[in-house]
Specification:
Structural class of chain B: mainly beta
Number of helices of chain A: 8
Distance between the termini of chain B: 53 Å
Shape of chain B: elongated
Radius of gyration of chain B: 34 Å
Distance between the termini of chain A: 79 Å
Number of strands of chain A: 0
Largest sheet of chain B: 8 strands, antiparallel, barrel
Structural class of chain A: mainly alpha
Oligomer: heterodimer
Order of helices and strands of chain A: HHHHHHHH
Helix content of chain A: over 70%
Helix content of chain B: 10-25%
Number of strands of chain B: 14
Shape of chain A: elongated
Strand content of chain B: over 45%
Largest sheet of chain A: none
Number of helices of chain B: 4
Strand order of the largest sheet of chain B: 5-7-8-9-10-12-13-14
Largest interface: A-B, 43 and 34 residues
Strand content of chain A: under 5%
Radius of gyration of chain A: 23 Å
């Protein structure tokens, strides 16, 4: 039995409220979906709550799924929607303009492709990102939503979605450039020191 | 430019997707499974439920509910009415052994006022009343050879088991005394120590952990199937009070104190003697007199007095006795949430309720101006001071206004457990609807 066929049987079992089938479906997608929820939620506990509510919606509305081959994408969409609802329930989603962050230049230049950022550097930069930027960045860059879809889901205009994405990118670029600059200063200082020591040895 | 954008997007994508959350799927599955079961029960979806077990439990619950009135019996059952039958004449009710006064009647024997003047009985506390028997009148009647019926004595002593009580607020206890056993029973107020269970998971409705709530509530009650022909209660009966609740992970326990005041009218037959008139009766008394010689001699002292003459045939008529009773309800219930949607929650709850009489005022019509002397009432209102237990079950609708404040609508059906006296001020069953506001403590 191929994967598609097994998934079809799983869906059928869930439609008939078979607990075993529901559990299998949950265990198959739980880990991936918790990662999705964690990208939107501010902490793990909230992400788990979203996961539980999301799967309840999945089981409740599974009959609406037309193509069983799109099950994963459909579940992911439910998780994203539930995450957004939870965020807005707990705290209003605030979209920032550049005036709130004066150190972020409007058009930051970022052209060093060869520089390898560490995982920690990237995570720190992303974690410091404001919630509004992070949500839109996630929806566009990771979950492949269009600006039109983002606007509909967040109840904003398309232009707002585009401008917020642009600002989010600038924010990340600024943070990464600072990390780069610190690295070069450290490296440069080290290089100067090494050169001085070599010269000293040669002279004396 | 486009490359730069893709590059930054790629960095972001890498940063968020490479991070994997440490996660135990089992704990979340438990919550999901629980909610699935709740939803399936609400939708009557029995796909995952053992049908034989489900229907067996339903039948068992139905049979248990039917058998409750027959299983629980009251140990103070009496063939007559349960408690004090207030006397209609001038003598107070006297405890046959201790001599303490149980119930009293303050009588205005010089009733020359309007025909609407009524006799009031205050039974909320003990008080002593002097014996108003008139020795001279008795002697006059005796010498006049009038066929005078003896004073009607309270039939306390005829009761096999007689219990009454009063709430002593100062010492926080209920004092009961039983005549048969001639002993004092002290019942101390219940002191429940609830140990809240440890809840590790959040309450999804209120986004709070296990917590206490306190609230105020007011309600209305309607008596169901009031079969007693003698008792007509003004409805609805309004009440108000405080409620206290502990909400745990799965269940909540609630209690409270509520006060309500009800007005009831007892329609009953009564017997009376008709006053025919008054008669001047002469009589004498033997007195000792010292004569002029210094000797003590017995002499007769003649005097006369008015004596009421009644018809020897007793008559009957109907009358309504108005009773105002204030009771205190102490419910103890346990419940669980059965439905949640956004800020709305519906819970099912059940338990028991203790009802205690605080005070009772009864107004008896006075007939002296109508040439009537009341002998007895066929059905006296039974005043029950002992706590009465009701079984209750119902639904609680709650709406979360904010994180700490809930608005609640409480509906429940109450059924009296044990022996039911049809003349008691407590109804057999009633429905109560209450509206309240509660505050959650974290």
């Amino acid at each position: 039995m191929n994967i598609v066929e097994s998934e079809r049987k799983l869906i059928e079992g869930c439609l008939h409220s078979k607990r075993n089938a529901q559990r299998q479906l949950y265990e198959k997608y739980a880990q991936d979906m918790i990662n999705v929820c964690n990208r939107y939620c501010e902490n793990k506990q909230l992400a788990e709550e979203v996961l539980q509510e999301g799967f309840l919606k999945v089981f409740k509305n599974l009959h609406q799924l037309k193509d069983h081959r799109k099950l994963r994408a459909w579940i992911k969409k439910i998780m994203v929607n539930t995450s957004l609802m939870k965020i807005r329930e707990n705290d209003k989603l605030v979209l920032f303009d550049n005036e709130s962050y004066p150190d972020i230049r409007k058009q930051e230049v970022f052209d060093d492709d060869s520089f390898e950022f560490s995982r920690d550097d990237i995570n720190n930069a992303i974690n410091e990102m404001p919630k509004g930027y992070k949500v839109i960045f996630n929806m566009y860059a990771v979950d492949d939503y269009s600006h039109k879809q983002i606007a509909a889901m967040l109840d904003i205009s398309e232009n707002t979605s585009k401008s917020q994405l642009s600002r989010a990118r600038n924010y990340l670029k600024t943070k990464l450039n600072k990390i780069k600059a610190k690295y070069y200063v450290k490296t440069g200082s080290y290089g100067v020191l090494v050169s001085f020591i070599c010269l000293y040895n040669q002279l004396f | 430019m486009q490359n730069e954008l893709e590059h930054i997007d790629d960095i972001f994508r890498r940063g968020v997707t490479e991070e994997t959350v440490e996660f135990k799927p089992e704990s979340s599955w438990k919550h999901i499974r629980k909610r699935l079961i709740q939803n399936e029960l609400l939708e009557m979806n029995l796909a995952n439920i053992n049908k034989a077990l489900f229907y067996s439990v339903l039948i068992l619950l139905f049979l248990l509910t039917l058998s409750i009135p027959f299983v629980i019996t009251d140990t103070y059952r009496n063939s007559n009415t349960e408690l004090s039958q207030p006397k209609q004449n001038k003598l107070p009710s006297v405890h046959p052994t201790s001599g303490s006064i149980v119930s009293t009647a303050n009588i205005d024997s010089e009733n020359t006022g309007s025909p609407d003047q009524e006799l009031t009985t205050n039974e909320s506390h003990l008080e002593s009343v002097n014996n108003v028997s008139d020795q001279k009148t008795n002697e006059v009647r005796h010498f006049a050879n009038t066929d005078y019926q003896p004073e009607h004595v309270s039939d306390f002593t005829d009761n096999k088991i007689h219990t009454c009580g009063v709430i002593n607020f100062r010492n926080s206890r209920i004092d009961l005394s039983t005549y048969e056993n001639k002993k004092q029973e002290i019942i101390y107020r219940r002191n429940d120590n609830h140990q809240p269970s440890h809840a590790s998971d959040k309450n999804l409705f209120s986004n709070l952990n296990s917590h206490f709530s306190i609230g105020i509530e007011t309600g209305s009650s309607w008596i169901v199937n009031e079969k007693d022909q003698h008792l007509i209660t003004s409805q609805p009966i309004y009440d108000g009070g405080l409620s206290l609740r502990y909400t745990g992970e799965k269940y909540f326990v609630s209690t409270g104190i509520f006060l309500n005041r009800a007005r009831s009218v007892y329609n009953t037959n009564y017997t009376y003697d008709t006053l025919l008139g008054t008669d001047l009766v002469t009589g004498y008394e033997i007195i000792k007199v010292i004569d002029h010689k210094g000797d003590t001699v017995l002499e007769r002292n003649y005097y006369s007095g008015l004596h009421e003459v009644y018809d020897t045939l007793q008559s009957t008529d109907k009358v309504g006795i108005t009773s105002y009773s204030t009771v205190m309800d102490i419910p103890v219930s346990i419940g669980t949430s059965i439905f949640r949607y956004k800020n709305l929650s519906i819970s099912a709850c059940g338990g028991i309720m203790f009802r205690l009489l605080i005070s009772n005022n009864q107004n008896y019509p006075m007939y002296s101006n109508m040439n009537k002397k009341v002998i007895d009432f066929e059905n006296n209102p039974a005043v029950v001071y002992e706590p009465v237990i009701y079984l209750r079950a119902g639904l609680l609708f709650e709406y979360k206004i904010s994180n700490r404040i809930n608005l609640g609508l409480n509906t429940n059906y109450n059924y009296k457990a044990g022996y039911h006296n049809s003349l008691s001020q407590y109804p057999l069953s009633f429905i109560r609807v209450g509206l309240g506001v509660s505050y959650n403590f974290k």
